[in-house]
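fyi for ur records
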Amino acid sequence: MKKNLPISADVDKDKNLKITEYFSSHTWDMKPPASSLLGDHEVSKVSEKLNGRSIALMICGGIAAMRAPILARALRKAGAQVTAFVSKEALRYVTPDTLSWSCNRSVVTELSPRAEHLGDGATYDAYLVAPATYNTVNKFASGIADGLITTTLSSALGLSEQGRCKILIVPTMHGSMHNSILTHSLHRLAEYGVHIVKPRLDYGKNNIPSESTLVNEVARALSTSPLKGKGILITGGPTPVCVDGVRRLTNKFTGRLSLKILETLFCRGAEARLVLGHGSDQPPPELAHLVEWVPDYEHYRERVIQLSTLPTCWAGIFTAAVADYTPKTQTLGKIESGQSELTLSLTPTKKVIDEVKTQAKHLKMVTFKYQENVSHEQLMSIAQQRLNRFDAVVANRGEDQSQSGDQVAWLCSDGVDPQRLVSKEGIAKGIADFLEHKQS
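which gave:
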């Protein structure tokens, strides 16, 4: 770029781009949006977590009711059909028209001779009370049925006790209202088999969690997967090695796939835990309590061996990009900068999956193999060799991507042809399906 270029001068004459436009984030060509085949009331599917499920969204009279339309859309994007039951008090914060548009069906606002509390001919897989106010929680726990929400819940509890549905409540109120009466009611409901969803604790309040949290909680409550209750260890991200007290050697991997695997297994009811290397992406808030961070290779190795050898750990999914080499010596403090040349002597690290294989003989192991500059046939040959020692190998090449730019991998296991998996969500689903097959 020329020095002292006028502010109106072209940066790229071919594109006629001006400096003012180049640095502006507010430019718009005023053209209409591209047409879409999606109808106004339809939603774009983002997952299959709730495919074919019917959800009764019970909305009580708290300010968080204004989030209900967004929640309804999120449930539908996961494949659910949603019917809103809204109390008179909640209508102060959200309108029937908005809920009807969000659910793409009529809204229930009152009891009538059609016996809406009995489903009016419909059946629901889950009743999600969000927000659940102090008044509703205590009435429900005490068996009071004096309105649309509490009367419907009284019937839902009977169905739940027959194994025909699940009930989830999301306590949402000011912290000063979380008194011993509420605590007693929550414990009582939990004893009845009601799922109590932990609220988002912030600003001295029990706040309604994110839409993704609630979708995952509903999926987990409804799961009939054979992985339900199974202890599964996941590893992910890079495992840096120390050069000195300041510098680290690491790699480009982010741990995103391991986070998607954790979410998938959580929704299927598994007791999954993720050991995540320093430098990885942050987990979503609803999964953060299932993640254990490790700062470097040595801590990674120690913790993975500890967890994998627990008798309650049934399977391990090893996606971490583990360091292959470590400096022969590590300098205390900081290596002086400004040197004309710096040479590091590296030695191989111990192969953690080999140690796990030796020490945790009971463990079902899914390992990963990443290659570059090899053919697909060579990749498959490498994966087949590893199957002599592990239950499954997920193999991929840096060059492989789908037409939409998603990651492509191959799940290899004994006795079946390699399975092509596309996208991180697809890879996570493929691994979960494989483990279900091993368990069944």
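The longest strand covers residues 364-371. thats all i got for now
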